[in-house]
Structure formats: C-alpha cells, structure tokens
Amino acid sequence: MSQSKQHQQQAYRLNTGGRIDRSRTLSFTFNGKRYQGHPGDTLASALLANGVDIVNRSFKYSRPRGIVAAGAEEPNAIVQLGSTEAAQVPNVRATQQALFNGLTACSTNGWPNVQRDLMGLVGKLGGQFMPPGFYYKTFMAPASMWLTYEKYIRKAAGLGRSPMEADPDSYDHLNQHCDVLVVGAGAAGLAAALAVARGGARVIVADEQEEMGGSLLASRETLDGKPADQWVAQVLEELADCENVTLLPRTTANGYHDHNFVTLHERRTEHLGETAPVVNGYRQVRSRMHRVRAGQVILATGAHERPLVYAGNDVPGNLLAGAVSTYIRRYGVAPGRKLVLSTSNDYGYRAALDWKEAGCEVVAIVDAREAPAGDWVDAARAQGIKIITGSAVIEAKGSNRVSAARVAKIDIDAFKVSGPIQELACDTIASSGGYSPVIHLASHTGARPTWRDDIIGFVPGLVKGVQACGGANGTYALGDVLAEGVEAGIRASAAIGHAAQPVSLPSAERLQQGPAVALFQVPHEKPTLRGPKQFVDLQNDVTAAGIELATREGFESIEHIKRYTAMGFGTDQGKLGNINGMAIAARCLGRSIPEVGTTVFRPNYTPVTFGAIVGRHSRDLFDPERYTALHQWHVERGAEFEDVGQWKRPWYYPQKVNGKTETLHEAVARECLAVRKKVGILDASTLGKIDIQGPDAREFLARIYTNKWEKLAVGKCRYGLMCKDDGMVTDDGVTSCLAENHFLMTTTTGGAAAILEWLELWHQTEWPELDVYFTSVTDHWATMTITGPEARKLLAEISDIDLDRDSFKFMDWRSGTVAGVPARVYRISFTGELTFEINVQANYAMHVWQTLFKHGEKYGLTPYGTETMHVLRAEKGFIIVGQETDGSVTPEDLGMQWCVGYDKPYSWIGKRALTRSDTKRENRKQLVGLRPKDPKVVLEEGAQIVLDPKHAIPMPMVGHVTSSYYSPILDSGFALAVVKGGHKKMGETVYLPMADGQTHEAEIVSTIFYDPKGERQNV
Amino acid sequence: MSNAATFDTRTDTAIPVESPLAYSYRHSGAPRGSGYRLKLRERAMLGHLILRGGAIVLDEAVRDVLGISLPGQPQGLVQDASGERSIQWLSPDEWLVIVPGGEEFPLETQLRERLGDAHFAISDVSGGQTLLEISGEAARELLMKTVIYDVHPSNFPVGKGVTTVFAKATTILRRPSEERWELVVRRSFADYCYRWLLDAGSEYGVNVEQ
Amino acid sequence: MFYIYCPYCGEHREEEEFHPKGQAHIERPKEPEACSDEEWGNYLFFRDNPRGVHHEMWVHAVGCRKFFNMTRHTVSYEILETYKMGEQPSITADSQNQPREAAAVSDQEEVRA
To answer: For the complex shown, is ipTM > 0.95?
Structure first.
C-alpha cells in the first residue's frame, strides 16, 4: 500500500452497495489517528474502508496482522476501546463492534505500537528459536525468575487491560423462560422461529450481529427472485408483531448449561457510544445477561469458513473468501484492489464474483480441484476470470501487506508441490477451505461432535432438547437450510406440545455445485519444518510446523497437542484454526481426523464483559446485608460493624475521648467494665429463633438436643447442645417452654437457617409420626439484652413485670410490658452478670431501646458490641459454636457432660457416636483455659500449642488456641484452647512458639476465669 | 385448645412503630421521579400469620373464621372480596395469612378456639416481614431482573404466589391483580431488597409511595 | 444449572431454590446402641458414588421446604424422576434399560440425554 492512501478518506469504500448510510459520516480514532466511516459500519469495515492494513501485532512473534474475518471468529482485530480511563473495554473484536461517532480504539497487542514494534525484532530474529513450549522451556528456570520474565512477556504480548477507574455504567441480568430459544437469526434460524412463533409458543430469538438476517443480509442469492434481505425484513416484521416472540439482536449465546439453561450476552448500548445513553432522564443499562431456561433450543448458529493454511497466510491482505464478500456486499468496502482467490470448493467463487462486480480486478481463481464445475464456476468463467485448476496459493509474499501470491500445482494426497511455481502480483488473497459448523454451544453440554466426511467437518453431537439446523448442522444450500429450519421449528414445537403452523418458504435458486476437496494445509516446496511459517492459529501464533513438531515430540492426543502448542487457547478459542490443526496432526500421525480426536469448546463462546457477568451484584449490592430493627441507632451512635453471616452486627462503639476516637481495645475495655460494674446493652436480635408447636414438641427436643427436656416447666428456659449424628457439636442455644406444647428455640446467629432445615430434615425423613411444626420467627422479634448489676433497677423503671429475684429466677421467662410494649423477658445470661433479655415485636424495637436509654443514663447504661460480648462470655468459659468447635469436637471434649442426657430413653442424635472408640479416646483435644505466664500477653487465636519447645522441628503439636482476649476485669490476657488430653493436664505448662521466634508460656487452667461460683448472675 | 401460648405483640397505645423500611427511607431516600414506569409502595404493619397443619384439618375453620377458603392447590393465593385479607399456599402444610394490622391476634385466637385439640400451629410473624407492592408498565421486567421464577402471565396468572430467590435473598412473590405484584420480604433483608429494586428499576424511573 | 421438578410444588423450579442433601434412602438404624462401631460408621460416613443412575435427597429450600428424592444420572446429569419422601424410585440402575414408559416422568422430559 502506498503511504498516500492514508490521507485519502475511505479510499476503499465502494460508491454503491452495502447496508451503510453514506449520507451520514461518523468519525473515529484508531491508534491515535482519526478516520471516517458510516452508520452501518463495524469498526473493522471502517478500518478496511480507510485502508488500515495492520490492526495488531501477533501474540508471540509480534508479526503485523490485519483483518481476516467479518464476525465472531476474527482472530487478529482484537482492540481496546475507550477514550477515557473509566470507559476502557479490552478484548473487543473490531468485526463485532458497531461504529459510532467518536469511537476510540487501539490495538491490543504491540509495544510500543503496531507500526514500530520492538518485539517484532524477536519475531524476525528469534522466530526460528521460539518453537512450541518455548516459554515453558526457556523462562521457567530458574523458577524464581518467572515473575520477572512474566512481567515483560505479558507486557509485550498484551492481553488488553482493565479500566483503573469505576465504570459509570450499569449492567444486569434478566431471568428468561421460554418454550423455544432460537440461537442465530440467519436463514435457518428465521425459518425455525417463524414456524415456532406461528404455533403460539414463547420464543426467544437471539442473534449476535447488529442486524438479524445472517448471511442473507449480504447474499448474492435471491428468494422468490428478490434480494434475500427483503424476505428477512418481512419475517422480522412478522416476528416483531408476535406477542409471544422476543427478538434479541446484538445478543450472543455464550454458554449452554445443564437442562437447557443458556446464557445470552446482550450488548444493549455498545453500538451507541462509550457509555449508555440517558432516556427520559434515566440512564439505560449498557449490557445484559439473559439467563434463559428453554424447553427446546434450536441451534441455527451457522458455520465458520475455514481458511487454507499456506506460507505467509498471516500477512495483512489474507482474508477469508466469505469475509471478502461480506465486506463488499454488506459494508460497501472492497478490502483491496487486486485479488487472488484460493479455494477448495464452489462457495469460495462468490468472493471473486463479488470482487469483480465491485469493479476490482480478479487476478485469478486458484482451485485445488482438477475439474471444478458448477453454476458459480460457470459464472466466473463467463465473467472472464482466469481459473487455475489443481493448484493452490502456496505462499503469500509481502511483509506489511500482501504483494504477490505464489501459485503452484499441488498433489494433496502426496502432500507436495507438483508443478512449476508462478508468482501473481496482488494485494489481497482470499481463501476458502470449506465450512466448519459452529458446534460450540452443543459441545458445552458435553456432547461429542461427530465428523462427517461428506461435509468435511464436525456436526453437533446429539443433545436432548436441542435441534441443530442449517449451517450448524452442515447444511449449506440455501433452499435446504430454510427447509431444515422449518423442520427444526416443527420438531421443537412438537416436543413442547405446541403444533407448529405451516410456513410457506420462499423459493431459493437451485444451484449446481461440484464436490469440494478436503484441503487444509497447502504443501510448500520446502518441508513444513523448514519452510516459511504457515499459520494455523493466528491469535496464538501456532504454526503447522509447531504442530508437526509436537507430534514428533510424542504428542498424539489432540488435547495434548492443543495444550503444548496453545492452539485454540486464545480469546477466539481457535474458531478458525482448530480443524486445520487437527487435520495437520492427523496427517503427521497418519490417521484420520476423527481418530485424532474432536475439539470441545467451553463457555464462553466469545469474551463477555465482567459487568454483564456480575450484573447488579456489585458494590453495596454485592451480597445482602441484614439489619436489625435497631440498625439506624447503631449507625448514628458511630458503631463499627462486624459481619456475622450476612448480618451487620455492632462490633464496638468507639467514643471520642479528648478529641481522639477510641481504639477497638480501648472501647472494648470500657464496654466490658461497664457491664461488669454497671449495666450494658446488646442488640441480640440476630439470634435465630424457631417457634416449635405440637404435642410432640418436647419429645422432638429430647431427640435433637443432647440434654433432657421432659421436665422443663412452662415459664422456664434451658440451654441445649445439638450434635450431628457423628457426635460432634453443631449448634447451641436456649430453648424456652412457652406452653406445654409450645417452645421457642434460639440458635446461633449463623446457624439459624441451617438448624431450621436440620429440624425439618429429621421430622420429614425419620420422625414424621411426631406431631410438631417449626416456624422461623427470627425477624419477628427484636432482642435487647441488658446485663450488669444495675440491670434489674433499670428494667424495673419501665416494666410491669415482677422482677424480684425470688419470683423471677435465673432461667425463667416472663411476659408483660416494657416501655408500654408487650414483651417476653428471659432471665438468661451469656456474660455471667444479672441479665434480662427483652423480646418485643421488631416494629417497636426502636421505641423500647430508646426508652431504655432515657432511663439508663443514670445507671451508666452502655451499648456494647460483639467484641465485648466475646470477651465477657470467654471470661465465663462459655463456648461459641464455630469458634471453640470446628465439627470435630464432642460435648465431652468441651467438658460439658452436664449437658448430656446419657440415660434418655431415645437414642438422641449424636449419642451412639459418643461411644465409638475414636470419640472415647483419652487424648482427644479437650477444651481448657490458658493463662499466659506473662499477664500482658494476649495469645494469638489459632496459635499451635506444644509441650516441649526444645523438641526438634517439627514439634509435635498438641492443640491450638480457640479464643483469646485481654480481660479488663482481670487485667490479664487469657485464652480458651483445645489440648490433647487437656482435662487431665490442669496446672501443667504448655508452650506456644510464634512465627517471630518468641515462645509464649501458658498454664492450663479451668475454662472459667471469672466468678467461678456463678454468683453474679443472681444478684 | 392446643396448649400453645398466644401473645399479642401489638399495643394500641400511641407508641411509635418503625416499619422494616424506616432505615431505608432515611438512608436511600424515596424517589418521586417524573415519567416513571414503576411504582413501589410498602404496606407496612399488616398482620402476618403462618398457619401450619393439614389442609383437611384447617380448611373448615379458616372458612368459618376468615370467610375465605384455604387454597388447596400449590402456589394458590386467595383473597376476600375487599382484597384486604388473603391466604397463600406455601407448602402442603403451610399457609401465609395476611390481614389488616391488628386483626392477626383476634384471628389467631378464634382459629385456635375453632381448631380445638387438632394438630396445627399458628405463628405470628407480623414484625418479621413486610409487604411491597410493585406496579407500573415495567413491573414485570423489573421482576425478571430480580427473581428467578418465570413471571410471564402464562405461567404466573393472577391468584398465584410462590416462594423463590430474590437476587441473593429470598422472597414470597404473589400476583393479587393484573396490574399489581406483591413481594413479602423478611425484615432483615428489606433494606437490601429495597436498594436492589431502586437500582434495578433505575432505567425505568421509580416512584416510591410512602 | 438443573431444572428440578418439585413433587410437592408440582412444577419445575430452578436449581438455585434447592439444596442437595446427599444419597437418598439412608435410614438411621432403629437401635443405634445395637450397632457395632463398624455398622454405625457405615451409616455415618459411607456413601455410594455410582457412575450412572443414582438416588439423591434434595430439599426445596427456597420454596416449600420439603425434602424429596431424585433419581439422577451422574454422567448425563439427566434427572430421571423425582418422588416424595417415603416413596420408592421407579427407576433404578437395574431397571434403567427397560422402556422409558415404565417411568412416570412424562412431564420432565426437557432434560438432556
């Protein structure tokens, strides 16, 4: 190409034809240069119109690369979009990006830029020295250097980059259900959709292109004697009018999952601008994932043309024959001036005919067949186009653009050049090696594709609930494609119980075609390993020589060859190259293609923006945050929050002291002392609460808990432990007897849902004869725990309940009013202090809480959070399930035999396991207290415990710290831990070697550090 | 009587109450845009009861006391003539009763009297959940973004209700009339649900009625 | 993403509404104390892992909260039937080669083979 063409706008734009609007001009920027195009262009067609040959540098060898295809299969024209940092989008195929005014794009690869590329030197000089496995072999040693190598390799290779600023757009998911999903709206898909839609079934039609119609939009064939796109318009109009039809253009079916669940990625506004537009004041959604559950799926995904593999086939100016036609007929662009076509079949001829009709020069058609015959062949002859038979383009010459084609007779069976070589000057080489059905979605399901010799390609394996038709099924003649589409529609309708209505199809021309020949790699006069590079996978720079080398190094399975050479591992998944690669491997191994293996693809079919995958589940909607009825108060009080499951619980309430905000340590010390000396208040609403009713409720409790329940009287509460049937503790909590047949169970905050399911499991599967029902009332009640020596005085001010210590005893509950609100009050204690747990309907919680504070000031009422709660309960040796226990701890390990009903009549859940030899072992890890020898030391939770710190490493570890805090009331660190045989080691010294080289000493003591007689809860 | 404890958790004095969305209105606001295509309204402080038992046990008592019959078919939702009282099938032995606020305790008491010694359970969950109404032309599409259940009219006619997944939480979704959908969400998840609906509805414009 | 027919709700629902609960038809020994350690260990810890037809227990966790059983093919992932707690499967590894009419799964056919 001459330099001057860069100055002439759209020098390759044809004066007529195509589905573009020449009356409007759009300007865009590519690699810093401004260009113009028209509405209806893709970025790729606009670049070709402007004569931009080099769109990227190749991944490994950094060779200049141009546009090859016109659709999703494009391997080279991968660009980065965005004029601002926030608008950056990596990995966009220029062939799939509609042009809009102001579009800004640059090449993904190329450092420092595509025209002048440092890595190009590596490609030129080092190319011979970068065989497959080069990176593994060269850069892996020494292993420690890989990170250094990787940084530069990645930068040089360039895989696009993510934006470093927040994305201004929103993305979402739409859950769709339909009777029939039609993927692809080309000839087959539209015919199928019509058949299904007329029968009244719910249909979704998804098509990845800017316009529906597929190849019909740019076809030289007619339907009913009229241009095919007229039929497309008519069908789309009818479908759009059907209430039961959803048309989704710009929507790619990317993943096919179990039971006909298909994910579609809809690009809603990507064609309009960098950010989504605002309509009526509301910003639109940029990109959307449709999660479709379909009764039947019709795969009308068409076929990808297969390029021929010849030397220099990666030089810009080498295109697919079909892409050449598409650019001419759909976009009004001739991607060059002088064309040589290399083909193995009749379909390829259309490119030459279109080229000629566009007024450009066809130098020659080179046909691998000895005696091509068919209507298109005849048409080419009639146009006076030179046809060279039994031959192929064996090499493209040129560096930054094709300058000539070397053409020779070839012997396919002997894989050699069999005649003299001639050189034809040209700037464009189009090739066609036939078609590969787009089987990607079907193979996501795990179905193995089937090789068909007659079409020289794989067709989808059989999948229940799926109908493949048209090109996707290896059917290419237009009339047959339409008929197959209708049949697929009828079959799909029948399968979901709908009668499809008859569809009268337009008549397609019946074209005579000659058989194609199976040609993949074109022989060169030099052996593959020594000749110029013949590219198989353009995106990953995999060559025919690389595949041959892999087979010589002993790789036989195509899956291994793929991994060794990286064939098909690019973002294009080797859409163009995989079959050629398999054919080359088959040739080298002397086998047939199906013997070498099949290619299987994974989701996603094309790259999907993370935004669409994430949808709305991001930022503050990433995960549900559960709030109690008092959340507002905690926020206003400046609480720091802790995540407990999905709950946000106040962790501690830092105060400002002399202008300085308290640390966690300072706040917790203050909160702890307030509880021990005055009165504190905790929002305990998050505890799970299960309402249990029925005559067998008591029996059920006795079976599910470790301890006894038969004598718990109305008005009383009891602590219970729950085990799994393996004897390991799984939950605990206080259950109250509300009436003879009515109990309220509390569970741990995190265990609420699981325990309800656990109760239902036993009731529904093992004990359906027990008359009992369980209902979650967790959210109905707000729970406020006031605890400390002043708790009774405070509550007495605002409650009508008799709080006298002898009438309202420890482990009793009473009902009455608190602050005028009906309340159930439980006298239980998790702090060791006198405690009242006030439960009111959650809608009243804020009033009751505020009233408590109104009256509580004079008693020093102090809100405390979960951290203080943990310290206070640990001082009393109360366990937390999930902290002291980890699924391997029995009630006996915890020293809680007092909570085990060994003589209960029913063999309750977990009982039998307690007599297994393993659970009876004396050296099981048992819960003990640890008192650090140095009271200033707060041991690390999780720290390992050893008996002999002088033992050679590895030291035998006998346990670990489960909870450890500083106790303000004891002015000392203290801990709970599990230690092998710990219950018999009271008073012994253990050691905790730390990562920093220090070793802490601690004494094994009782788990109860404070008020061992339990007098304080009874003041 | 069923030997269960009943407890009227509601008080009729002038004590202030806070709906599950009280925090959300303060924190996220209540947009009142123009040209909106979605309306959102919380129906707070209603009476919610969970009824457990066999259909045969409960049916007659419910009809006698409430004047509407128990939906026996899965996913059934039945309302009285005023639309103020409803019963929804949740499970073969579980129903959700929603009545005007304050009616739930007398209703529970009457049902317990009427059911006598039969095996059943009634739990008051009025403080634990709230009802959100969604209407407007974009209502169905908003729901498609939000719940995984098929809300197409052919699958979700008026008089149906399901328990299903709401974004990453759960909800009861019901369709009491052609134009109106109802979500019953748990109190602790209400703010998440509210923020989700505002966000998902932002492209259509949302009007929140308080 | 399975599409599961809940035998209690009487319709297909999305997998997100369900939790798998392991192998079906594991019965707790009626007299645990009469079991040897080995028998109890087998009940607690040992489960089948067949290639092919398998019976599993699931719960419609976000839905009717009922437990039920499922006959599922572990290779194709096809759900051959679901049935209520207490019922027996109509399809087993042995019966699998018999005609499909034997299985009462007419309303669950849109799953892949």
So the answer is: yes
